[in-house]
Specification:
This protein is an alpha/beta fold. The chain is built from ten helices and ten strands. Strands 6-7-8-3-9-10 form a six-stranded mixed sheet, sandwiched between helices. Bound molecules: adenosine-5'-triphosphate and magnesium ion.
């Protein structure tokens, strides 16, 4: 028997004003899965994550998390439930230190384990530990991505949404970041992984959603997508 979905989207459409960026998407995400969300520029990948996070102008359809409908919940409530988004472009607080940025990730938490989570998040990436007192605005792009991920972990994600974690980064840094993605998968964190680099996303996921112009073109095991010739031109330009 399949486990109950952790997150479930039914007929979800999302808008910027009158522009429909995501059309009629239905998908179930099971606990512990990593789902790659791939497709060309403008396909609606970021908008889909934003719909789940509750920051789109308007969303139609139904989003359920752990069995409860959350379609009208505020973004903050969703973070509190464990839906945590590392946005495209990272959006760290440049005038604050590395440590301060990480602590902000736990702003909704009142529990006694916060300090332990902070220590763990800071130690995820040795580069962050070394730069703990440095202003975040002076970090390199790769270090900023690491910081955005460490900050997200402070919120104890049940579903971690990563939007283009490899964007603009050198291969060595991408490796460091994906090493952590693999560790999080091993720990059972459910991950929605948006990537321009389809191969990288497929190698690091269980299942894939292929989007184009806001619609779901294909859904299936990641291993199959890489071999599907009909998706080749859409994803790999072949
Ligand atoms: N803030 C916005 N206001 C209006 N339209 C937007 C906004 N952000 C995105 N769009 C439009 O929504 C559609 C989907 O964009 P989205 O950013 O979700 O695509 P994407 O798949 O993430 O693309 P990319 O790979 O380039 O990041 C596009 O047509 C885009 O022009
Ligand atoms: Mg995007």
């Amino acid at each position: 028997m399949q486990p109950e979905p952790l997150l479930s989207l039914s007929g979800v459409a999302a808008y910027y004003g009158n522009l429909c960026a995501v059309r009629d998407i239905s998908v179930d995400v099971r606990p512990g899965e990593t789902i790659a969300i791939i497709g060309p520029n403008g396909a609606g990948k970021t908008s889909l994550l934003r719909a789940i996070s509750g920051v789109m102008d308007r969303v139609r359809g139904t989003i359920r998390f752990q069995g409860a409908e959350i379609t009208r919940r505020s973004p903050q409530q969703r973070v509190g439930l464990g839906l945590v988004h590392v946005p495209e472009g990272r959006h760290i607080f440049t005038a604050m230190t590395v440590e301060e940025n990480i602590r902000i990730g736990g702003f909704l938490r009142r529990d006694a384990d916060r300090q332990a989570s902070f220590d763990e998040a800071l130690s995820m990436f040795p580069r962050l530990t070394e730069r703990r007192h440095q202003l975040a605005g002076t970090l390199s792009g790769g270090e900023q991505q690491m910081l955005a991920m460490a900050r997200a972990l402070m919120a104890r994600p049940k579903v971690l949404m990563l939007d283009e974690p490899s964007m603009g980064l050198a291969p060595m840094i991408v490796n460091e970041i994906y090493r952590q993605v693999r560790l999080l998968r091993q720990r059972g964190v459910t991950i929605l992984l948006v990537e321009q680099n389809a191969r990288l996303a497929l190698e690091n996921s269980d299942r894939a959603l292929v989007l184009a112009t806001g619609t779901l073109r294909h859904e299936g095991p990641s291993s199959g997508v890489a071999q599907d010739r009909s998706l080749g031109s859409l994803l790999f330009g072949t």
